[in-house]
Structure formats: structure tokens, C-alpha cells
Amino acid sequence: MKNKRVYFAVAAAVVLVPHALFLHTFSASPLPKPDPYIGPIPSATPPKELAVFAVVAGVNHRVTAEGYRGGSFFDHRDFSMAGALVKHPQGNLLIDTGFGRNIDEQFRTLPWTIRAITKYSLWQPAVDQLQAAGKPLRAILLTHSHWDHVSGLPDFPGVPVWVTTQEHEFIRTGGKGQFGKPFTGIRYEEYGFEGGLYLGFPASHDVYGDGSIVVVPAPGHTPGSVVVFVTLANGTRYPFVGDIVWQLEGISEREERPWIIRQGADSDAEGNRENMLRIIALKERLPELIIVPAHDIRAFAEMPKLAQASSGTTSH
Ligand SMILES: [Zn+2]
Ligand SMILES: [Zn+2]
After folding, report:
1. Which residue, among 96, 68, 93, has the nearest Cα to 253 in the 3D structure?
2. What's the CA gap between 245 and 261, in Å, rounded?
3. Do the beta carbons of residue 220 and residue 274 sit within 8 Å?
């Protein structure tokens, strides 16, 4: 009798503990609220022609539970696979590419762990949107080199791809989250952070020297991840935060990705959290910031579109 009781207790524990852990991983658990950023607000003299455009190339069909702690398994949401065009008189930049023309073929080279949880639709690759709009590129500036941000690189032969030294190394060594078959013939160009503190980040790189496009180091999600701040002539400021958070709730509700997902997605989850808190502190100080996580389609809806994306072109 006693043995039977022990058996049931053990059996219950074996079933219930993983369930409890699983649910805990996905339950809401906001990070402590940081103090608002109190440092200086850097000045910028952007040209009046400076503009940003959403270049949404497709979507991943997900549920919000995958995006942030406290999300639901029943709340379906399409995550943007996108870039943004920054139109500047000294040269247009594309921040990330989102899906490219060859995504179907590239997708097959990903580890099964990614393929098993990914269902996507390609709308229109960035290269086709840019060609249709007649927008040549000076360079592509990557927030980081994960597959869903670089898929379109081979569509732009000869266009320099700007990366940090750390991210270039991550690419060279085939770090996790990249396609199984490395691209050939991409013209990577490394840049450094010659500038000082910028909005709570320890260093900066002012691309055209006018304060309109400023890149800051934000390692964690990948070793060489960055945030790109674009400041328009009217003062509108967009931090393109890459994958520091996947959805805006990461900032508004201070919710990280669920633990189990951080293990797969982030190179250094602690480092990523630090940068997430920097962005949250900045938003506390500057509520008007338009934060653009690469996968939050609502953020791209805040800017003009380069092309009218048509849904349902091809689905997988
Ligand atoms: Zn990523
Ligand atoms: Zn991503």
C-alpha cells in the first residue's frame, strides 16, 4: 500500500513538474522597471530628404507565447520578416533584408529545430520592392546576421554589407541561427564605434556624420548585434532594435522571450537583457520613440511602406 502511494507520488511528480516548468517558462514575469535614462539627448542635423520606409518581405506565422513571456498559445500573430529603407542624400541604406528571393531553398539548410517551429509566407523580397521604387542602395546595414535578417543578401550582388567585427566573426564561424550553407561573394565591410556614449549605450558610430543614422553596439542576441537609431528632420526618432525583443510587449510589458526560447535564440541572454533594459529606460524618458523590433509588424505600420505588400504570394 505504502509502495503504491510512493509510486503515485513519483508518477505525479514526473508528469506535473515538467508541466509546471513549461508553464513557468511561458508565464508573465516582467523585469524590474529601470530608472528612466537621464543622460544627454544628442543633437542631429538630418537632411530634410531623410526618410524611412517599411520593407516587409514576408511573415512568420506564430503565437504570441513564442514572442514574450505572458503571451498566449491561442493568440496568433504574424511576425514581420522585414527590412527598412533609410533614404539619405549621401546614400540609401537598407537595415536588414528580411526574406529574399531564395528563402525556400535557403530554408531547407536550416536545422530541423528551427524548421519544425517555422511556418512562413513570402510576400515580396526587398530587392523587388526597391527596384520597383527605383531606390539604389549604398549599403546594407545588419542589426545582426540571423537567417531571417540576411536571406536577401544574395539578391544585392556588389552592395557592401556593413557589420561589426564581432558579427563578421560570428558569420565566418557559422554561429547558430544562420543558414547551413554560407553565402559566397558577399562584400562584408566592418565598421567600428569611434563615437562616445549615445542614449545610454556605451559607444556609437555616426554613419554620415550628421547624427541622422547612428549605430550602437548591443551584443547579446548575437555577439555583434547593434541598434540603429534613425532621427528624421522633424525629430522623429526610430531605434531599430533588431531582435533585442521580438514584439513590442518586450518593451511595453518588460517581458523577455520565454527561457526555453532564449536558449535557442540568444548567444548571451544576460547581455541581451541589459540592452533590453537600456531601450526600456530610454522609452521611459522619450515616450515618443518609435521602437522597431524587426519582427513586430505593428512597428512597421508606423512608417510609410515602400510597396504595398500583397499577402499570400507563397506560403510554407
Ligand atoms: Zn535574431
Ligand atoms: Zn530575427
Report:
1. 68
2. 12
3. yes
pLDDT at 263 over 60: yes
Distance CA 57, CA 32 (A): 35
Position 16 scores a pLDDT of: 72
Q: What is the DSSP string of 70-124?
A: T--SS-EEEEEEEEEEEE-TT--EEE---S-TTHHHHHTTS-HHHHTT--EEE--
Please name which ligand lies nearest the alpha carbon of 295: 2
* pLDDT tens digits along 199-251: 999 999 999 999 999 999 999 999 999 999 999 999 999 999 999 999 999 99
Q: What is the mean pLDDT of residues 182-195?
A: 96
Q: Return the bridge partners of 140, or none.
A: 94, 161
Q: How confident is the model at residue 309 (pLDDT cuts 50, 70, 90)?
A: very low
Q: How far, in Å, is the centroid of ligand 1 from the Cα of 144?
A: 7
CA of 265 to the centre of ligand 1 (A): 7
CA of 197 to the centre of ligand 2 (A): 26
